[in-house]
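Design request, tokens follow.
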């Protein structure tokens, strides 16, 4: 059955409801994908404690295989000190150019292609689209964090809205309640990847320099409607990195407003029809 982390109260682990590892799950690899743009580290939480806390929690539940934690999102908008703290504790950094669904879905699908089952997968995000994808993924992989199997008739958004949000909010509550521990890292090598430029970076300084560079910002403008024209204008004006990043921020804010409007409309529809749910073709989204 499910094991709640309060079962390990002596270690302060009250993060979330998860099943204890079965014999088949105990020694296989576990991959945690953390949508950090939608689930950011609050100012009152020490970022260097997140990775070690997740490792202790999963270890306590019997997940003894290799563990990989990847923070994915628009990392140029995450404070540098947060990124440094995460990478210093062995969390991989994966930058995506936009908050459109396809940015993270593409990464998920690429991971699936590179990691044949069996494997444990945990996704921390708030996007509804991932519920549908996780439903299919769970046919071959062990999905951690969903209280019940994904069932559109029972709860159309059970993974992203019930489990995904619950995971992050309860993780933060546990971190705040837990006595502070040393920010111990891991011996595994941290990776740095920019999916917008399809580029592996070597080292934290090289990575952060890249995602804040003029060339990178110009490339990322191309991912937004109207961005190509804006990029051409920036080149013609010979704008510096700061000006181009400001242009890029404008496109991202517009996309954020669109997402908020979509979510408001979704909530309205759900009030009128509890079983309403948008049908997503996530494979087409990721193309």
């Amino acid at each position: 059955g499910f094991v709640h982390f309060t079962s390990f109260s002596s270690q302060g682990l009250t993060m979330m409801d998860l099943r204890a590892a079965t014999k088949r799950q105990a020694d296989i690899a576990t991959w945690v994908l953390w949508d950090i743009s939608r689930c950011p580290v609050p100012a009152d939480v020490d970022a260097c404690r997140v990775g070690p806390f997740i490792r202790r929690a999963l270890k306590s539940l019997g997940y003894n295989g290799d563990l990989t934690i990847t923070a994915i999102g628009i990392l140029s908008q995450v404070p540098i000190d947060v990124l440094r703290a995460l990478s210093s504790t062995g969390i991989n950094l994966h930058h995506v150019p936009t908050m459109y669904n396809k940015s993270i879905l593409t990464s998920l699908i690429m991971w699936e292609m590179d990691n044949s089952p069996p494997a444990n997968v945990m996704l921390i995000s708030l996007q509804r689209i991932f519920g549908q994808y996780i439903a299919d993924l769970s046919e071959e992989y062990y999905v951690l964090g969903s209280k019940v199997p994904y069932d559109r008739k029972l709860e159309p958004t059970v993974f992203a809205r019930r489990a995904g949000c619950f995971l992050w909010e309860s993780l933060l509550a546990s971190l705040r309640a837990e006595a502070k521990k040393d920010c111990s890292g891991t011996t595994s090598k941290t990776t740095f990847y920019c999916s917008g430029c399809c580029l592996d970076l070597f080292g934290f300084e090289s990575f952060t320099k890249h995602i804040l560079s003029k060339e990178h910002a110009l490339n990322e403008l191309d991912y937004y409607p109207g961005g190509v024209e804006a990029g051409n204008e920036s080149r013609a004006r010979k704008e510096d990195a700061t000006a181009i990043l400001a242009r890029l921020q404008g496109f991202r804010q517009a996309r954020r407003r669109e997402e908020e409007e979509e979510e408001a409309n979704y909530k309205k529809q759900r009030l009128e029809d509890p079983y309403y749910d948008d049908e997503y073709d996530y494979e087409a989204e990721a193309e």
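Comment from the thread starter after seeing the answer: thanks! The chain is about 45% helix and 15% strand.
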